[in-house]
Each structure stands twice: as C-alpha cells, then as structure tokens.
Amino acid sequence: MNNDYKRHIRIPSLKRKFFARNLFSMLLPCLIPLLLLGSMSIFISDRYIRLDAERKHETMLNQYNELIQIIAAEVDSLSLSFDKDAKISMRLSSLLSTDTQSYENLEALFYLKNIIDVPANSKPYIHSIYIYSENDQGRFLSSREGLVKLDTFYDQAWFGGYRALTDSNEIATEVRDIRQYAFEKQPTRVVSLYKRLSPRNAVREGGVIVVNMLPDYFEKTYEGLSELPQSSFLITDARDQLIMQSGGTIHEELLPAIPLPADERIVQADEGSFHVTVKKTPRLNWNLISIVPRSAMYKLPVTLIVATCTLAFASLLLCAALAWLLTRQNYRQLGSIIQILESADSAAPVQHMPRGVRDIYEFIMMNIVETFVEQKYLQVQLSERLYKMQAFEFKALQSQINPHFLYNTLNSIYWKTFQLTKSDNVGCQMIALLSDILQYALDSSVKSVSLKEEIAHIRSYVDIQRLRYKDRIEVIWDIPEAAYGCGVLKLSIQPLIENSIQYGMESRPFLRLKVKARVAGGMLKVTVIDDGPGIGSERLEKLRSALQEETELTGHVGLTNTNKRLLLQYGADARIRLVSKPGYGTAVTLQFPQSAD
What CATH number should be reported for the domain holding residue 533? Predict the structure, then answer.
C-alpha cells in the first residue's frame, strides 16, 4: 500500500519533468543554431556594411581630391608659363608698362591672352584668370576683358589679397564676391587662388596669378558623388576658414572638434551623432570634410539587424510551437507506456494497444509487451551472458599470468643452463634472445611500432637462427636512415623471415636473405628477398588467390594471417605482393601507408 502511494506521488512529478525536459531538448537544437547564425550574421553584416560605407566615403573624398588637385595643377601650369618662361615674362612686362599699342604689343596681347583663355574657357569651374606684373600704369591681364586698368575695373578686391601675400611658393586662398554690374541682385561668389610671380630685377619687380573659381560647381559635383542626401560637405583652408559648403545642414559648431590630418591620410571619427571623414589636399592645403549623420550612414545595417532579429524571433516562435505540439504528443504516449507498465506489473490486462507502429513510442509499447512475454527467456539469456562474461574475465586474468609465467620459466632455464657450463654458452644466448622476443611479442599495449623497433626484434630472431644453423644464414639490411622512423604493424615482417628460413634451409646449404625498405609517396615498402628454392607456379597461384580472398592456406598460416592484419589495419592498398621463381628465390613485399604528420 505504501509503495503504491509513493508511486502515485512520483509518477506525476516524473511526467512534469519529462514534459519540461523534452520541450527544452526540442527547443535547444533550434535555439542554438538560430542564436549563433543570427548573431554571426548581425555581426558580419554590421561590420562589413559599416566598413563599406566608410570606404565609399573615402573613395568619394579621394575623387573630390583629384578634382581639386586639377585646379592646383592649372595654377602651377600658369605659373610655369608666366614665371619661368623669360620670353613670356618680358612680353607681359612690356605689354603692361607701355601705353602705345604697337603691332608687337597687340601680337603679345593676343598671345598672352590666348594662354589664359584656354583654361578659363575650357574649365567650367573657372570664372576668370588675372595676370598681374608690377607696372606704373596699374594694368593687368584678364581672361574676360583682356588688358584692363585696376582703377576702372569692377573687381578691385583681389589686389588687396595680392598685397597681403607673404609666401611666394604657396597658393593662397580667399573667398570673395564679384559684382560686375551695379544692378545685379546677387554677386558672384568666387574662391580666388593667388600664386605670386617671382621678381626679376631686369624685367619686373614681381606679380601675381589669380584664378577665380566657382564654388557652386564643386558643391553640385559633391551632390552628384554623394549617395546620402543628408550628408554635408565642407572645405576649409589652412587657417580653418570655411571656403565652400554643400549638401544638407552645415554643422559649423563641429569644426573645432574635428581632428584634422597633418598629411594626406584620411581621418575618420565619430563626433556625437555624426560620422566625420577628413582628407587634406597636399598642394592647396585644404581640408575636405564630409559630415554624415550616423543614423543615415548606418541605416542599412540597422535595417538588416532589425530584419534579422524579427525573422529570428518569428522562427523561434514557430520552433517553440512545433516543439510544444511534439512534446504534448510524446507526453500522451508516455502516459500510455506508463499505463502498460503498470498493467504488466499488476498482471492486469492491457486496456489499449496500438494497432500499428507509427512512431517511436508505439514501437516502444509493442516491445514492452513482447518483453514481458519473453521475460523467462531473457532471464536465461542473461544468465548465459553472465557466465560468458565470467569466462572472459577468467581468460583475461589468465592471459595476464601467462607472460609472467613464461618470463620466470625462461629465467630459470637460463640460470640452469649457465650452471651446467659455469659460464655463458650458446643455450644461454638463445634463451636471452628468446626472452627479448617474447617480451616484445607479448606486449599488447601497442599495435604499431617504428621500423627501427621491428628490425631490432627481427635481428634477435635472426641471431637465434644463426646460432642454430651455425652461420649458414646471411642477412643483408638495405634500409635507408629515413625509413627507420616510419610506422609498421607490429610482428608483420618477422613471419616472412621465418618462412624464408624454414623453407630455404630445407634445400639449401647456405641461405642469403635481403631486407629492403623504401619510402615514396607517403608509403613505406618493405621487401623480404631470399635465394631459396622458390615456389612453383601452381602453388604460387594458390597463394595469391588466398591472399586476395583472405582465406587460410595450409603451410602458410603466418603469411595469410599477416595479410589479414594488414588489410584490417590499413585497407586494401596494404595487401601483400608475392613474386617467386622456382630455383631462384622468393620476394614478398609489404606496404605500410604513412600518416601526413
């Protein structure tokens, strides 16, 4: 009564544990790959998409930098023409200093204006070009109006910028407004690039090249290059003064905090909620600054993360629902199994039996019934199995005793033989060698040994045979040093030596053996060659068939057993190769595949 009460208490608890454990075991295989793949996909996609977005900004700034470098190249090209070419310098000074319009001056005007007209008219981002050389007339050359005077020209502000220049090698930058006509509502905004002309004592006292650029062109170019409409683009000069700007909202308050590079490297940084990329142009010493809201730049990674998390959560819900249904079904079937067990235990008839096997639980039900029907038979089988296990255990204990018995017996025989002659003799030597062989053969802890260990064992066996046959045996060892470290199957070569000596000494007064080893293509090949009587063609064919079919052949048990061991250990590629010719001898080759390490 007490046992029945405990069972009724324990079974509901076991049912609840089974339900929870089964549900968890079904959810876990779905949950682990989902979490691993989801987290890996989120991490990889976020990392690579962010890197790709940053790389695109770097590429865009590099393209923009190349465009601006073209402007610096234009200024340097004009500087080479007007500053380094003495003929052009002389013509310019003469043209600006002389009032008379001679044929030579008109020709010089046409020639010099053509030099500045080519870049001014062919480059859409150039508004105008001024060439000025110090002269008393206050004249300079303009790409738009030609030869003009400063005091009557509509743009006179550039002259103040020229006077403020200090470095003759650098290109100075100034943002200005040009109003050509008084009725213009909006002046034309330009970025003027100043490059001083070196003074020449004999020709001129100095001068300047002024290239007026249109910043609107570069601002529109940036809008075409940028893939994010929310991004902003700024260019500052060496004094961190804003030159031009484009794109979305300009965040001038970020400029003091932006890390500016000291060389041409690109610097990327996060300032608050913005991602900033900065590139310095080497010749103009400008800073190209791209400011992008991080929410816009990393919108795609965030979208992918949200989509991945949503799909992962949906998959988790689906797996949970499926696991719940399967667990509930298994739980019901488990209840049926418990009912069958209780019926069988109480000898009551089984109320419900499955009509067919549709799943594992119905299979268990059928087997439970069969188990109780065959209970007596299983008890007999169990008793028989216990008997066999005891027999195996006794045999294992006996096999542990036999080697010690053999060692002790050989040791006793050794000393008894030693006492007969009061010194070491042939019998003692043979017993000592046999002890070494038995110790090597009966050590069952390893199956594979190095070729060096196997050869050492074979040498002990050969020494015994030499003592027996009084030096009627010669063994040649053709083994390179590299082969000694290769692995071989233990006691696989010695049976071949034994066969050669057994059959060779029956018909030969002197037997010569050769043990040859070679390593090639990850395979160790060991060949045992003798000059014995050889094997007849019919007998040789039977031997080869036995090796191929893995059957035993009377008189060659050692050879066939070695072949079986090689096949079990290494596979079909390790089958023994046998070559023989009557009257000339026999060659047996063993192959040992070597591991890569």
Answer: 3.30.565.10
